[in-house]
Design a protein that fits this description.
Blueprint lengths: L6 H11 L6 E5 L2 E4 H17 L7 E5 L4 H12 L3 E4 L6 H11 L3 E5 L3 H7 L8 E5 L4 H6 L15 E7 L7 E6 H13 L9 E4 L6 H12 L4 E3 L7 H11 L3 E4 L1 H9 L13 E4 L6 H11 L3 E6 L6 E4 L12 E2 L4 E5 L12 E6 L6 E2 L3 H7 E2 L2 E10 L5 E6 L4 E3 L2 E3 L1 H9 L4 E10 L5 E9 L7 H14 L8 E4 L13 H10 L1
Helix pairs in contact: 1-2, 1-3, 2-3, 4-5, 7-8, 10-11
Amino acid sequence: MSEQLNIFPYFLGQRLEEGLGDRRALLTAEGALSYSEVAALSARYANLLAESGVRPEERVLIALPDGPDYVGALFGITRMGAVVVMVNPHLKPDQIRYLYEYTHARAALVGSQTMSEFEVALAGAQHRPRLIEVGGHGHAERIAALPDQHPIFASHQDDAAIWLFSGGTTGRAKAVVQSHRSFVNTTKLYGHALLDIGPEDVTLSVPKLFFGYATGTNLLFPFSVGATAALFPERCTPETLFAQIAAFRPTILVNVPTMVNHLVSHPDAGNQDLSCLRLATSAGEALPAELHRKWNDLFGVPLLDGLGTAEMWHVFISNRPDDVRPGTLGKAVPGFEVKACDDDGAEVGPDEVGHLWVRGDSLAKGYWRQAEKTRAAFRGEWYVSGDMISVDQAGYVTYCGRADDMLKVSGKWLSPTELEDCLLEHAAVREVAVIGASTADGLVKPCAFVIPAQEAAADDALAAELQAWARQRLEPYKYPREVVFMEELPRTHLGKVDRGALGRKALDR
């Protein structure tokens, strides 16, 4: 790999050099855009940002809905040598203010629907970024009037390309600084070698592009081979997703466990035609074996559960299309090395639970302005995750939960994931999250927050039934001491269950 590397030519510019400029790059409800049209749009965004005073290596926030403008902006920023900072466009004002003060971005590209929230959040801010409204009155004409050419900055492979955010399920998000090298490396190892993505594929994603998992699987991977990415700006619901599948007929569906659950639980799921799909991926949270079984029974599409982190950019453990073991994450993607270690960093034996250590050429540069946390997580070539795993003799990895979510109950360790999987097997449970709640005497007991199935009655009788269900199937100390019924589970800005919020709710009870 040459030391000079910019992800713009690798993922987009080279498609034009290969004579693929007329190929369909993006699909939206408004129509299709070719690779040539996306490249021209990226040049216009680069020129827009240059006119706004953005220089190479400076940071630019993207707070946009999924669509051509998002893609054009991302490639425009990278082609001019600036750094993309992807954020959820629907953040609350205090979160917006925090992210700006933390990142010190030079400019922010903000959708017209959420511009007012950004204006309020940044009112009176010192050195506030240049806010550029996208999608509002006159924006399309302004962009179209800009030149459709812009030079490509000669970035080094280790220069920062995109910032991702890693916040786990509690606390403020940390910015993970990822280099151009990482995006190319994982694209080759996971996108090409494992998913076997090719020019005829059409991808469609449940998570939005600001989530690194989707940035890869629903943009960079297809663009690297001249394939097509289907985008829609609406919030993803089962009805919306079924409609997008019917309209775009994707071959690869980028999914998450929560939506897998919604899809298999949908009353009209049996009437949906998913025959266009050759595979689906799942990441972001653990995929319970029971949920995987329901998916297989209903849709019969290979569902590849995997695990990735912002610190390694994307998926580095995954099931394979020809080797799917429900209840496991599969094996390490070739090119990455994974091991489970004890608290002292010594590798544990087969099937023993330990901290996830991983190394490979997608390792991030560290956390922005978080030196202490960087030193704790990045150990030479290795990244030490907060995830707990076990690895069997054959190399199959089982996810055991987050280290800070593991519960010490009656002097023994309990993985919330194990209890969640057990409760999900009950017909009356649609979704569940387990946390540790402190009792009056200071002990920690498992508490299950349950969204019941539509036909189930959320009452004391069902709570007692679920407790008995767990006691019959698990060791006695693992059953939930309390079952709390909810209409929905709180989620972080990355869509993960907000266990911190559940913990506060437990304290308030």
